[in-house]
Design a protein that fits this description.
single chain; alpha/beta; 7-stranded mixed sheet; two-stranded antiparallel ribbon; 12 helices; 9 strands; about 15% strand
């Protein structure tokens, strides 16, 4: 089976699936949690289904631009999707930040059709825990509190939302307005079952999803792609999703025999916003991690690298680039 990109088409190979996992661009939740990272009450500030930040929208469009113009094999591979026909699949989480990132990616790929997967949402679900978050009102109450955690918990009143329905996400006018796009987009053509009354409503419980539940859901998604490889249904699949869920998918694929609590205690697969991970999944279920957190579209400017911050922030990245420049690299 030949692969569309010349750099990946050096030999005929046994059937396998190339899987790309792409984390969404910076969301308003990402920005808020970083802006207020030194505050004890920072984690309580959370939109249920946030849009991208201004920087996040730029990241999403840079991702698409890189796929359209980039010289690296991954960019060439993705923009060759038309040659694969229905053996190429672009999938998205049903959450706004992932859908809008998928739109940005699709701008550089001549708008391939997108299938929305209702089970590809982020750990936790569709909820917020601070009722006045939209205006960021009430922060003074938390700042003045002797016990911010208890005060925030009292203010929270967990509120859950049903999430988008299949009818809404496949309606170009509705989804474009929901995503704040400049014009209607017809790319979200189908959705898997589970969105008839709202993807989160159909999860059946109004509670914050646990890490264990997220892992089990990530493992089920991983099996979906393993089965896709075993049946030789697709040549390439791209899933635009979320950091925690991608961590769970990768662990379930690479360390299936290791209990999730042990995995979480030992390691995490971290992705910056719009970071790309590439895997090869053989027809026999063997999984090869080929590249993790690939960000050539962001590396030129450290301010673009958000999410999954380094231990000492990105200052050391600036120093690294300054050192390379002074040495003439």
């Amino acid at each position: 089976m030949a692969i569309a990109s010349a750099k990946f088409a050096t030999r005929t190979r046994a059937p396998c699936l190339t899987l790309y996992l792409v984390r969404h661009a910076e969301s308003l939740n990402n920005k808020i949690s970083y802006d207020y990272r030194e505050k004890e009450w920072g984690p309580y500030l959370r939109y249920s289904d946030p849009d991208l930040s201004e920087l996040g929208t730029r990241q999403a469009l840079l991702l698409g631009q890189h796929v359209k113009e980039g010289a690296d094999p991954i960019a060439e591979h993705l923009r060759g999707w038309k040659a694969m026909g229905d053996r190429f699949g672009l999938y998205s989480s049903p959450m706004r930040r992932a859908l809008k990132t998928t739109w940005g990616l699709a701008q550089g790929m001549d708008s391939p059709p997108v299938t929305v997967l209702p089970s590809a949402f982020e750990h936790g679900g569709c909820f917020h825990v601070y009722p006045t978050l939209a205006e960021l009102a009430g922060l003074s109450v938390l700042e003045a509190a002797e016990d911010p955690d208890t005060t925030a918990e009292a203010l929270a009143k967990e509120t859950h939302y049903p999430g988008l329905t299949q009818e809404q996400v496949t309606n170009p006018e509705y989804i474009s307005q929901y995503l704040n796009l400049p014009e209607p987009t017809p790319i979200f053509t189908t959705a898997d079952p589970g969105m008839e009354t709202g993807w989160w409503a159909e999860q059946g419980e109004e509670k914050v999803e646990s890490r264990k539940e997220c892992y089990l859901r990530g493992a089920a998604l991983g099996r979906k792609f393993v089965e896709m490889a075993a049946k030789d249904e697709k040549e390439v699949a791209v899933l635009v999703s979320h950091g925690d869920l991608m961590d769970c998918i990768l662990k379930s694929l690479l360390f299936p025999e290791v209990p999730p609590p042990v995995q979480d205690a030992a390691s995490r697969f971290v992705h910056t916003n719009t970071g790309i991970t590439r895997l090869e999944i053989g027809a026999d279920g063997t999984v090869y991690l080929m590249k993790q957190n690939h960000t050539p579209h962001l590396d030129a400017e450290s301010e673009l690298l958000t999410g999954g911050e380094l231990v000492h922030d990105w200052d050391c990245w600036d120093k690294h680039h300054d050192q390379e420049a002074s040495q003439g690299h």
